[in-house]
Amino acid sequence: MTPRILSLVTVFALSAAYPAAAQPAAPVPAPAAPGGLEVDQGGLTGSVSDESDWQDLGIAITTFATDANVPTQTNAGSTAALGRALSQVVADDLRNNGLFKPSGPAGLPQPAFGEVQAPNYPVWSVRSTDMLVQGYVRASGNGQLTVGCYLYDVALKQQLAKGGWQVGPSDWRRAAHKCADMVYSRLSGESPFFDSKIAYIAETGPKDRRMKRLAIMDSDGANHRYLTSGQATALTPRYSPDYSKILYLSYLNGQPSIYAYDLATNTQKLIARTGNPTIAPRWSPDGRWVLYSMATGGRTDIYRVSSAGGGTPQRLTNGPGINIGGSYSPDGSQIVFESDRSGSQQIYLMNADGSNQRRISFFGGRSATPEWSPRGDQIAFTHIAGNLRIAVMSPNGSGMRYLTNSWQDEAPTWSPNGRIVQFFRTEKNSGIASIWQVDLTGRNERKLPTPVGASDPAWGPVRP
Amino acid sequence: MSNLLPTLHFSKTGSTMLLFAGALAVSACASKAPKELPPEPGPATTTQTQPSDLGPVAGSQADFAARMTGADTIYFDTDKYDIDATDQAALAKQAQWLMQYSNKRATIEGHCDERGTREYNLALGERRANAAKNYLVSLGIDASRVTTISYGKERPVALGSDEQAWAQNRRAVTVTID
């Protein structure tokens, strides 16, 4: 499950070979799917919403066709079943992020394999479809799968974008996320984010004896996996920029300490041997540095150490009080962090070498857990004034505004494109935690599906 | 005629005299500890019941917990870590026991209520445990005998989400090592 082993090959030459070449051929065998003959259930393919103009766009996501319905090594079944599953993942991605309200794949006509590159435009014009997504899946003899994805403007009768990917059987969902990313990027002008992963803490058990385990999942909650047993409490994970490691806090040897968990070898090592508790791990954007905070004699300071190991940790803050966290600007030149040197938790900026420390949060209450957007234009944080709420501000401290309004929301993490913030929400009394996300408008708040309680989400970058 | 004399208060008990060595701030906040509820033992404070009728083995953690009658735990105000008069009395009692059993070591567990962010609370819990440790050291306990650990807001003893529960959870618990 490491990026090195994955072979997600972009196949841009696909149009020369498939399915265009198959186009003149006889119609492909009808899918064996029960849904194959679904009746059209409505006139319009899009949904109307008063939320935003984007949602007025009628996007139809159709079942991906296949040239031959053959068994696959995926957990989705044959290529025909896989075609349905792929299009469902694409539709769910686009629907769940809140920008679009796509229709399909259920209830829509199913394009034949030969139609994938030559849409039957009149059919879609009649249905008032604005944008049409078609695709196909083909199985190779070696178990590899080729997935093609096409976006058409129905009114213009024009292809807007196309993509092709070769994936192994266990990675078929990535091809669907790549397709959704392509459609999202082409229509919104934003950077992609669906093909990404999230590290988090899985929580089970009663409030006073809660088990906290390191876990990972895809951006849509699929491919969930536990990484630690729960014997030692795990907290605050952070994916490395290349997804090879996860920094996290563990009580493994009694004292809370930061470990780097290697996903290729399933081994971990202490990031620094200090004899003191280390907390709040963070990566630099290039993955070369690790920030951690260390408590000594009641005070806490932020340190920087090489992620390769070795070298003397460099202290970046020098009290007073608690200085903790630290999130790099995308260019790595600055660090935003949290300090109570003024008497309560507030947000500060400093240069990456620790110089020029200055407070930027001046709006009452306490401000904590700052996270710099990958776009660089915003800082997300937890604002505490009675309740805990997620808020954003610009890096100079201006333009503070809330994204959530609940009893206890904390610890924001950015989507790779800086448009969505995930965080965790704690229920009053039960203390049950769950991961939520909200977009930068403060709208489209939704809970992520996790098998058990969940906290401390850490969203990784888009995968190559 | 010496000006020094009136300021010297000699006490019968050593521990009370040692209180003067405590240089930490004294809070004016009076009733922050939940008096109506007996403090619960921390998670690691497994009280060992002895088979004999003589009570816990002298010098054991069970003995410590029994002798402290609640004074093994001190409480803090929101976001605070200062040692107030109530805390000083409790820590003096702990110090007395630790002096009696001078070969025993102890861990102080620092905790916070749930109404703060997770990472800050880990640092705040450490700060509270450290404040308690410093006070014990000021009373003459060797620093090498006392370690600290913070659980932040991860291990509440009171499970509600109200002021009373939060007051019980903002605490430092001393656990001796058998």
From TrEMBL, chain A:
Residues 445-464 are annotated as: Disordered. Residues 1-22 form the signal peptide. GO terms for biological process: cell division; protein import. The keyword Iron-sulfur does not apply. Residues 70-160 form the TolB N-terminal domain. Keywords: Cell cycle, Cell division, Periplasm, Signal. GO terms for cellular component: periplasmic space. It is found in: Periplasm. It comes from the Bacteria. Its main location: periplasm. SUPFAM superfamilies: TolB, N-terminal domain, Tricorn protease N-terminal domain. InterPro entries: 6-blade_b-propeller_TolB-like, Tol-Pal_TolB, TolB_N, WD40. NCBIfam families: propeller_TolB. The Tol-Pal system is composed of five core proteins: the inner membrane proteins TolA, TolQ and TolR, the periplasmic protein TolB and the outer membrane protein Pal. They form a network linking the inner and outer membranes and the peptidoglycan layer. Part of the Tol-Pal system, which plays a role in outer membrane invagination during cell division and is important for maintaining outer membrane integrity. Belongs to the TolB family. This is Tol-Pal system protein TolB. It comes from Novosphingobium endophyticum. The gene is tolB.
From TrEMBL, chain B:
One of its GO terms (biological process) is cell division. SUPFAM superfamilies: OmpA-like. It is found in: Cell outer membrane. Residues 1-30 form the signal peptide. Residues 63-178 form the OmpA-like domain. It comes from the Bacteria. GO terms for cellular component: cell outer membrane. Keywords: Cell cycle, Cell division, Cell outer membrane, Lipoprotein, Membrane, Palmitate, Signal. CDD domains: OmpA_C-like. Residues 33-58 are annotated as: Disordered. The keyword Lipoprotein applies. It holds the Pfam family OmpA. Gene3D superfamilies: OmpA-like domain (3.30.1330.60). The keyword Signal applies. The Tol-Pal system is composed of five core proteins: the inner membrane proteins TolA, TolQ and TolR, the periplasmic protein TolB and the outer membrane protein Pal. They form a network linking the inner and outer membranes and the peptidoglycan layer. PANTHER family: LIPOPROTEIN YIAD-RELATED, STATOR ELEMENT OF FLAGELLAR MOTOR COMPLEX. Part of the Tol-Pal system, which plays a role in outer membrane invagination during cell division and is important for maintaining outer membrane integrity. Belongs to the Pal lipoprotein family. This is Peptidoglycan-associated protein. It comes from Novosphingobium endophyticum. The gene is pal.
